[in-house]
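== Fold encoding ==
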Amino acid sequence: MLRPWELNVDIVRESGTALHVQIAQKIIDNIQSGRFTPGVALPGTRDLANKIKVNRKTVIQAYDELISEGWLISENKRGTFVSNRALAINHHNKPALRIQHRKTPQPQKELTSIYSKRQAHDLIQFSEGLPDVRLLPLEMLSRAMRHALIFSARNNKSAYGDPKGSMILREAILQMLNIERGLHANLDNLCIVRGSQMGIFLAARIFIEPNDCVVLEQLCNPLARDAFKSCGAKIQYVSHDDEGLDVDNLQLLCELYQIRAVYVTPQHQIPTTVCMSQSRRKKLLALAEQYDFLIIEDDSDHEFNYSPKATLPLASIQASNHVIYIGSLSKTLTSGFRIGYMVAPKEIIQQCANQISLIDRQGDIITELAIAELLHTGEIKRHNLRTLKIYEERYTFIISLIRKELSEFVSFTPPKCGLAIWLKVCSSIDMYRLLSDAEVEKVSMTSGTSYSASNNLTPAIRLGFANLNNDEIRLGIQRLKAAFLNQDTKLLSA
């Protein structure tokens, strides 16, 4: 295996400490400092011995000690690597090991209950609505990236381009939005951004001045909330229910304050997964016209629809100058592909382009060209259909498991779309203890409190399921159930 770096180990031959102990301790120090992370390949014993002028057997002895203690692992014909278990040892701040003797030391045996029964990598994580990267069509992506690199080199596309994004990608996304999502936009209405969060921040940067009033739902996307606050906005919160944002409550706020903008996720409300009803969508647009405020529509998870009929975005209902539409292709492929878009009136898009010129002058032209090819050839559409079928199966599976295993602890309404499920936890459950017990059981999910405007305790959890296959979902639900049952056991013992 090619290792494009050298391991520098300073040894002191007159120190009285055995050479193999010095070598091992230097490696431990590098792991504990974070310089060597799990999976990093160490040099071969022969190479390291030649570099530091010691007998190869000395290096082998050091490596063997570290392997027996869990710091390193050896893979046949591949080499020696920093172990994942080193994370657990380092996490609990164990003291430096006395490895002069061949006995297996204590750190590997004294790990807390989080790590005692399972490997450190054995965490089941119900992620925040992220896609499964294992479904990524790598051959298709690599081919498109290769074409983009060749095209860029031959056509001098490495020069600075349009801050609104490459024309070919904007054309492809515009076609998708107009045909599939009912928008009535043209190229002057569209700008490419690095994911939806950048679009939200740009909207806040352009329109929000210190002390402007921005309305968000009481439970909402915390990153969006922080973006508006960073621009000096005063946040007002509106209630929401099973039909989405409470427009009557919003109207009361409009009468009390001069509202500058309202941020909503109507397709798949973050975090409750509710789809805003059509009547409330129309009332929201009417209020925007009446009170002259902007609607910043974050169309989260639009492409992951499980109902027979898709609900179109707010921006499609009427040609309104009050809607800024924000979306992303990141979940279609993977979050590593930071491609998002904004649709707004021409003058707003130009202001976005001006801001982008200041913070992201070049953009990512190679990725933009590659994604444009996949959109034009229909590859992304076909990939969407393939993954949607898989996610729908997982969606059906996790809903059936929750009903079977967790019904005495939670209540929920199956969402119409999206990659996450919102569970309301029974009032008798201690949320702090539940989250602590879930950590012990090696299952991770997002607490409802993290979405709360005032960080008040919210008896709910959000389970993103798309990143897990059915076996992983089953194991995760079993562990979550164990966390609930463990709380009951503690209550009885108390």
